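Continuing the batch. This is chain 6 of the set; chains 1 through 5 are on the previous pages. Same settings as before, nothing changed between runs. Recording input and output for traceability.
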Amino acid sequence: MALDRRDFLTIGGLIAAGTALGSVGSAFSHTASGHEGHEAEPAVKRTGDRASSKNKWGMVIDIEKCGEGCDACVRACRKENNVPHFDDPKLDIHWIRKITFKQKGVPGAEERQMPAMCFHCEHPPCAHVCPVAATFKRADGIVLVDKHRCIGCRYCMIACPYKARSFVSMHVEPKPGDNRDVPVRMHGVVEKCNFCVHRIDSGEEPACVESCRKEGNGAMVFGDFNDRASKVSEMVRTSRARRIRPDLGCDPQVFYMGI
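Output for chain 6:
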């Protein structure tokens, strides 16, 4: 039943059912908290531990600016994080992907596309079900996976209502040109988008956001929700900013505009 439930809760199905969207509502009703229950060393190389509850990192994506067929964010993510691509969809790993949806109940609605990744929830169910504390949330709200603790049980994949995790089922050899700022990929573990935490800790923005601005139409904006003067804070306070399935109580830190 768990697998059926997970399939039922895929993002495309949620949007098609017309129940995926909710207003910003309580966007600022929660402040960033520390590691919830478990503390683990993240499986990423960091230039310095800059995680602090003073920050609450998140993203706003305006799909009106997201060009159909544009995959700049996907390509940048794969390059930055050495994410391999397999021809077999059962083996493929994705940290960010473009999904197609059509709003049900809207006369004349056309199919549209939107990027989707880990939403770095305020209350991540993936962390709650992990039996070895491999999944945890940093003080600044970023949800990470410690590959050295992960036992590959995939409970987190079942618990995630947004289908944002991938299981590395085979060994992947490092290649020339791989980004050395990220760790060598391990097989038999689960991984996902980490907001390019190694870049954030160096004062940069996620690779997908940078590529969207340079190669796309600037649909993706990243920043600190705790800074009310930041662009993401201003955007999320508008009535157009919405979360995916707010009724689940996960409080995602990725918002969408234009849907």
